[in-house]
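Predict both folds.
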Amino acid sequence: MNAKDEELRRLEALISQYNQHQALRGELVFGAINDDGRLDVATPFFEDADYEALKASGLRDALIGLLDDMMVERSAHGAEQAHDGILRLGSGKVVLEWLPEGASRDAADARRDDWDLIPWLIERLGLVQYEAIEWKKAQAAEKHEGDTSQWKREIWLSPDKNRAIKTALAEEGQRLGFQVLPAGSRGEWLYDLVWRRLDANRNLVGMPLAVEIEMSDNRLWGIRYDFNKLLQAQADHKLMVFQVQTQEEVEAVFERLKESIDVYPHGSPCRYLLCGWSTQQNAFHFEERIAQPTPAQN
């Protein structure tokens, strides 16, 4: 949730008093831990020199004090989001985004260099699988007077798979304070789904997650066509979801995609999660892969 105009005016008035603010660029993730709802934790994500300037000028403490006041005011007015947020600085501009209750700790973790999103992705896709099977059982029960024994005959259509996966990923990305694309009526932005990290002037400064989903074409060349787009993505985490019939076919695709990962000359470290849906088993299978930068050759 973006800040109110009045909140932004107060922040802009504050930072305008400090000469250093034009050169500062980064994020301050803040939140309440205790029941009183006051600002307890503020985690900075700035270059070292910028953060030292932020502290030395007194602007950091002034910002924390104002954000604390705003949290108290929002709580007093019963605002839905009042205790967690992200303050962004960049190019002399300031942006304040309020986050869902309790999200600031996860949002801070998501901005650390050693963050590993893969366990969450596996857990969340496992929940998508569970919800799909429950839906199939409900459909079978409706058709067969409460008998769910034929649930495997129910078809989980590819568009429904896409929608369920994208919805789960979009909700989490927004909760962590990332820009999620596509959004609303906007079309795809290079990939089927992406989390983007922007500064206060809407400069793209990071891509925590890029996703490709190929559920309509179970041929290897069709899966690889989409996967090759992921190889080129400058993303910290890359998720590829595809669909084939058997577990053996899933594993065969895994082997081919892992070869592609190993051969591609990566410019920065990243984590891959390969996720194959077996229509025969009604189950996702997973394979993780970490890619390291390719050493420069003389």
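Second protein follows, with its predicted structure tokens after the sequence.
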Amino acid sequence: MSEDLREQSGATAAGVVGTIPCVYCREPIAADTFVYWSPARRLLSAGCPACKRQVTLPAATWRRLISGSNVAATAAGTLAERLP
């Protein structure tokens, strides 16, 4: 199934192995618990089991994190983009 078709169908990330650290408390969230919001926004979200907050990520960031890239570099890049 292509990525665009999965996003349009509202599919989950089932079958993906790995964890994503919570942006609030850094506890691991299973990657397969993330679900797509909508095809136009290309956002995924999941609830953190530790702090009970909703974590929302762009699909590109989610893919980068599950592929094993450096989480600290990703967080620093995201923070740098938001600073004036």
